[in-house]
Write a structure and sequence with these properties.
The complex is a heterodimer. By secondary structure, chain A is an all-alpha fold. Helix content of chain A is 52%, strand content 3%. In chain A, a hairpin with a 2-residue loop joins β1 and β2. Chain A is elongated. Chain B is built from 16 helices and no strands. In chain B, α2 crosses α13, α3 packs antiparallel against α5 and α11 packs antiparallel against α13. The radius of gyration of chain B is 22 Å and the shape is globular. The chains are: A mainly alpha, B mainly alpha. At the A-B interface, α1, α2, β1 and β2 of A face α2, α4, α7, α8 and α9 of B.
Chain lengths: 141, 473
C-alpha cells in the first residue's frame, strides 16, 4: 500500500464501488424481470399450477429433492420428472409411498386427494417447460 | 493468568448469546450426523424424523446459532469500540429470550408437527413464505426474527451514535443492517417459481457472499486489533479493501446461481466472471491475518484466539474461495449444479468463514467475560486441539463429498445416453458417504473437546495471579 493511501481513501473506494455495483445489479435485475414471463411461459401458470406450488412448499419437498438443481441432494431432481416419468407414474409413485423396503430411503405418504395430485402434476409439468438453458445435461437430472 | 474484566459492564450480555450459540451448535452437529447416516441407512429414524425434517433442523440451527454468535459478538464489540456502555442492556437480554424461545418453539414445531399442519396453524395461507430451502420458518418466526433484528440494530446503532465511531464498528453495523434488510426478501414468494427463486437468492446469496462478509471482516479485524496490537490505520485500510472486493465481486457474483433456473443466458457471463473473482477478498483476508500476526506489537496470552482467527482466514479462503471456484464457472456448473460438489462447498465455506469467526470471537471474549485476560494454558491447549480435530474432521467430510460429487457427475451427468439414474448412482457413492460419516464423528469429537475446554482450570503453578472477576485493574 503506497504512502498517502489512507483508510479514508479505502473507505471512499468501498462506498463508491458498492454503490456502482448495486446500481448495475439493479439494472440487470430490472431487465431480467422483463424477460421472466417469456422464459418461464408465465401465461401457462394456471390456478392448478399455483395450487401445486403451494402443495410443493407445504410438504417441504425441497428438503429431500432438488428442483432445477436447488434443494437437498437426497432424492431425485424433479424439474424434469414430468418428461422423465410422465403424469401417471408420478401420481402412482406418490400414492405408493413409503415403500418400506428395509434400509432404503423412504418418502412419507402425504395422503393427497386425486385433485391435489393433479395440481402437483400440473406444477411439475409447468416447471418442466421453463427455459433452463438446456439443464440438466440428460434426462436423469 | 492475569485477571482482567470487561471494560463496560453491559458487554456481559454477550455471554448469554455465546452460551446459546454453542449449545445450538451441538444440536446442529447431532442432526448433521443423523443426516449423514440417513444417506447410508435410508430408513433410519423413519417415519419419526424423515430426512427433510432433520435437514431443516440442521440448517436452521446453523443459521440461528450463527445469528446468536453475530449478535453476541456485536454486544461485546460495540461498547468497546464505541467506548461507552450499551444503549440498553435490558433490551439485549429481553431480545435474547424472545429469540431463544421463538427458535426453540420453531425447532420443536418441525420435529413434533407435520410440516403441512404447522403451515396451516401458523397462518401460512395469509402470506405463503414456507417450504423454501433455509427459509422454512413459519410466518410468526419470520416476523419474530425481524422484530428481534430491529430491536438489536436499534440497540447497537444507538450505542455507536452516542460513542466513538471506528471503522470496525461501522463495517459491522453495515453488515448487520444489510443482513436484516435482505431478510425482508424472505417474505417475497411470487407464484412464478422462476421469480421466487431469483428473490430467494437475494436472501441466501447476498447474505453469505455479501453482507455476512462485512460482519466476518469486522469481527476478524477486531480480534486481530486486540491480539496483535497493530496500528488501527493499517487494519482499517485492509478491512475496507477486503470488503470492497467482497461486494464488488459478490453482488454480481449472485449471477452464478442464475445459470439454470430460467433466467436469461447473459447471467452465464456475468456470474462466471464475477464469481471467479470472489476468492480474492478471501485471499486478502488470509494475507491480512498472517501479515498482522507477523507485525504484532505484543505477545497476547490468548494464543487460542489467534489460532482461531488465522484459521478463519485460511479455512474461509479454502471453503468459500477455492471450493467455490472449482464449480462456479458456468460450463463446469452445468455438470455439478445440485450435486454433492455443492454440498462439499457449502460445508467447508460455512465452517471456514462463519463458524470459525464466531468461535474466534468467543475464544477472545469469553475468558475476559469470566474474569481473565486469557483462558488457562491447559484450557487453551484443549481449544487448539479442538480446532485441529474439527478442522481435520471437516476436511475429511469435504474431501469425501467432493469425491462423491465427482463420481456422481461422471455416472449421472456426463453420459448423454445410458446415464445412470439418481438412485442407482447413490448406491455407487456409499464408500464416500461412509468416509463422510467418519469425518462427521471426528468433527463431533472436536466439538466435545471444545466444550471441555471451558471446564479446564489452571495448572497449580499457573494460578497465582488469578484474581477472578473481583480483582479488576
Amino acid at each position: 500500500m503506497a504512502q498517502g493511501f489512507t483508510s479514508q481513501a479505502a473507505r471512499n473506494i468501498f462506498y463508491g464501488g458498492t454503490v456502482f455495483f448495486v446500481l448495475l445489479f439493479a439494472v440487470l435485475i430490472f431487465n431480467t424481470e422483463s424477460r421472466i414471463p417469456e422464459r418461464s411461459k408465465a401465461a401457462d401458470i394456471t390456478p392448478a399450477v399455483v395450487r401445486g406450488k403451494h402443495l410443493w412448499e407445504t410438504r417441504n419437498c425441497i428438503g429431500c429433492h432438488t428442483l432445477l438443481g436447488e434443494g437437498a441432494y437426497f432424492a431425485p431432481e424433479l424439474g424434469n420428472v414430468y418428461k422423465r416419468r410422465g403424469p401417471d407414474f408420478i401420481k402412482a409413485w406418490i400414492k405408493s409411498q413409503p415403500t418400506g423396503t428395509p434400509g432404503r430411503r423412504q418418502m412419507p405418504n402425504f395422503n393427497f386427494s386425486d385433485a391435489q395430485l393433479d395440481d402437483l402434476v400440473e406444477f411439475l409439468k409447468w416447471t418442466n417447460g421453463v427455459d433452463t438453458e438446456k439443464w440438466p445435461p440428460n434426462i436423469e437430472g | 493468568m492475569k485477571a482482567m474484566t470487561v471494560k463496560f459492564e453491559s458487554q456481559r450480555v454477550s455471554r448469554l448469546y455465546f452460551t446459546a450459540a454453542i449449545g445450538l451448535f451441538v444440536g446442529q452437529i447431532i442432526f448433521g450426523l443423523t443426516l449423514g447416516l440417513q444417506y447410508l441407512i435410508g430408513d433410519l429414524a423413519f417415519p419419526a424424523i424423515p430426512f427433510n425434517i432433520a435437514r431443516m433442523v440442521h440448517t436452521n440451527l446453523l443459521i440461528v446459532w450463527l445469528l446468536f454468535g453475530f449478535m453476541g459478538s456485536a454486544y461485546y464489540l460495540i461498547p468497546e469500540e464505541a467506548d461507552t456502555e450499551l444503549h440498553s442492556p435490558l433490551l439485549a437480554k429481553l431480545l435474547f429470550w424472545v429469540f431463544l424461545v421463538a427458535g426453540a418453539a420453531t425447532i420443536l414445531g418441525y420435529l413434533l408437527v407435520p410440516y403441512a399442519k404447522l403451515a396451516e396453524w401458523t397462518g401460512n395461507d395469509l402470506l405463503q413464505t414456507m417450504g423454501r430451502e433455509f427459509l422454512e420458518q413459519p410466518l410468526p418466526t419470520k416476523v419474530g426474527i425481524v422484530i428481534v433484528a430491529l430491536g438489536f440494530l436499534f440497540n447497537i446503532s444507538m450505542t455507536v451514535l452516542k460513542g466513538r465511531k471506528t471503522a470496525i464498528s461501522l463495517v459491522l453495523l453495515m453488515g448487520l443492517w444489510g443482513l436484516a434488510l435482505l431478510f425482508l426478501f424472505s417474505f417475497v414468494n411470487p407464484s412464478n417459481l422462476v421469480r421466487d427463486k431469483m428473490y430467494w437468492w437475494f436472501v441466501v446469496h447476498l447474505w453469505v457472499e455479501g453482507t455476512w462478509e462485512l460482519i466476518l471482516g469486522a469481527l476478524l479485524a477486531f480480534v486481530l486489533v486486540k491480539t496483535t496490537g497493530v496500528d488501527r490505520e493499517v487494519i482499517d485500510k485492509w478491512l475496507y479493501l477486503i470488503i470492497t472486493m467482497a461486494l464488488v465481486t459478490g453482488i454480481l457474483g449472485t449471477g452464478h446461481h442464475f445459470y439454470f433456473i430460467g433466467l436469461p443466458g447473459y447471467w452465464s457471463w456475468v456470474g462466471s466472471v464475477f464469481s471467479a473473482l470472489e476468492p480474492i477478498p478471501f485471499f486478502m483476508m488470509t494475507l491480512f491475518a498472517f501479515n498482522m500476526v507477523q507485525r504484532r506489537k505484543r505477545e497476547h496470552p490468548n494464543q487460542a484466539a489467534v489460532l482461531w482467527a488465522v484459521g478463519t482466514a485460511v479455512m474461509g479462503f479454502l471453503g468459500a474461495g477455492l471450493w467455490g471456484f472449482i464449480h462456479t464457472l458456468s460450463p463446469v456448473n452445468y455438470y455439478t449444479h445440485g450435486s454433492q460438489v455443492t454440498a462439499a462447498h457449502g460445508h467447508l465455506a460455512f465452517y471456514g468463514a462463519y463458524v470459525l469467526v464466531v468461535i474466534a470471537m468467543i475464544s477472545y471474549a469469553m475468558p475476559i467475560l469470566r474474569g481473565w485476560e486469557a483462558a488457562p494454558k491447559r484450557a487453551q491447549n484443549a481449544e487448539m486441539w479442538s480446532f485441529w480435530i474439527m478442522t481435520i474432521g471437516m476436511a475429511v467430510m469435504v474431501l469425501a463429498l467432493t469425491g462423491a460429487g465427482i463420481l456422481q457427475v461422471w455416472l449421472q451427468r456426463i453420459p448423454t445416453e445410458g446415464a445412470m439414474s439418481f438412485m442407482a448412482t447413490q448406491d455407487q457413492l456409499r464408500f464416500f458417504y461412509w468416509v463422510r460419516v467418519a469425518g462427521g464423528v471426528m468433527f463431533l469429537a472436536g466439538l466435545l473437546t471444545y466444550l471441555a475446554s471451558f471446564f479446564i482450570g489452571p495448572a497449580p503453578d499457573e494460578s497465582e495471579q488469578t484474581g477472578g472477576r473481583l480483582a479488576t485493574a
